[in-house]
Amino acid sequence: MPLRISALLSIVVTVATAANQTIGAAEIVSRKSHIVPGPLRVTELIFSVPLDYNNPGGETINIFGRSVSNYAVPIVPSDEEEEEDPLPYLVFLAGGPGFGNPEPQNAPLTSTALEEGYQVLYLDHRGTGLSTPVSTNMLQQLGDEDAQVDYLRLMRQDNTVRDCEAVRKALNAGLSDNKAKWSIFGQSYGGFVALSYLSFHPEGLREVFLTGGLAPVGKTAEQVYQSLYPRVMKRNKAYYKKYPEDVANVRQIANYIESQGGSVDLPAGGSLTVPRLMTMGIDFGGAGGFTSVHATIKKMKTALDQFGFLTRASLTPMETFTTYDDNIIYAILHEAIYTDGPGDVSNWASDRVARQQNLFSWLSSNTSISANSSEPLLFAGENIFPFFFDTYPELIPLKGVANKLAAIDDWTPIYDQKQLAKNEVPVYAVSYVDDLYVDYEYAKDTAELLGNVKKWETNGIPHSGLRTNTEEVLTKIWGLRNDVMD
């Protein structure tokens, strides 16, 4: 299925499960290096791996990665080419699910990790970035809804871990077992992947770093959202305290949408409904989130005041506020990252819990928005709702697929709690007390379960700390590793 590229280097390596069974092979099909300002050597790598590790001889997909290391022209060139062991890898596992990695020179981890003596490998999770990316058109080429569901079931963190192990053995072929191990750094959902890695392939790991990534191991999707909504309500209260004028402004925009039949066409397709408007609260958990939401509301209110309708310029921010059209895995598999094994079914947990608790008036189709009400309309947080598959153009054709995925009750396991409890791989974790996206209490439970973990907690940095408070976060996490914490 993937586009095959002429191989510059080809290595086939067998990867084994914890049960010591052969499950597939990784092949490096392309390796190209170039120098970027820094100066840094960036090597682009494409690997071929099994789509389904239970069928290692079957269909393959590509995994794309970029490794980065310092580059310098030697002062005195050597007359002989000497083979040296490569620098140890630190693999960055991005948040999501559903997102690829930035260019290494633009990533906050790169410079400090290079200073610590690593080369950094940015791997795009399967189905994301340039790793045989999932899209609606691509899925529809696979066949009917059941075929698409079968494919998407293979895009979760358990198979991402298998991909990582296949890639590790391909890159480190010929090294001793100790030198062939690598380190991983999981941000947010990347930490969920890291915990799955510790569950199923700890033998490949030297150490693990986590920032906002202590997943709610042992908690159901319903429990995750039951714990989330009180934090969402708290953020709503803080938002309207900072921008009290938006109580009326949000209602003005909502009433206009209702006056247009409940939906306003967006410039690039799809529609703006009141429920979609209220999902902007997903930004409430990051630095500057309140400001970005207010700026968008202000732009729409100004258009209504001046022209009586929402202009193109006021609507375009709504198309990029949440990137479900470009990163469909984030919408269609988000609740599946909490379903851990047979019997664990998501069944639109976010929507169910919100309705059970009667949190959002806009979720009810029988409720109209009162223009004269003084009560604020409440924003949602990091929630996935079925109506996404009615309002986002890339998601609309996948509504049936999404409903089938939500009903699956025979998912594969994503964690092994017994293995995590006896873990010996050093884990260094930064945990955010006021994290909107990863529940702090559940993170504490996971840290107590996990063996050999050191943790630094803060209530002064948001979930986006790796990006917005880079120096402080990385100083603390390297301090945990280097044992210099007071």
From TrEMBL:
It comes from the Eukaryota. GO terms for biological process: proteolysis. Residues 89-236 form the AB hydrolase-1 domain. The keyword DNA repair does not apply. Transmembrane segments: none annotated. InterPro entries: AB_hydrolase_1, AB_hydrolase_fold, Peptidase_S33, Serine_prot/Carboxylest_S33. Keywords: Hydrolase, Signal. The keyword Hydrolase applies. Residues 1-18 form the signal peptide. GO terms for molecular function: peptidase activity. Belongs to the peptidase S33 family. This is Alpha/beta-hydrolase. It comes from Periconia macrospinosa. The lineage of its organism: Eukaryota, Fungi, Dikarya, Ascomycota, Pezizomycotina.
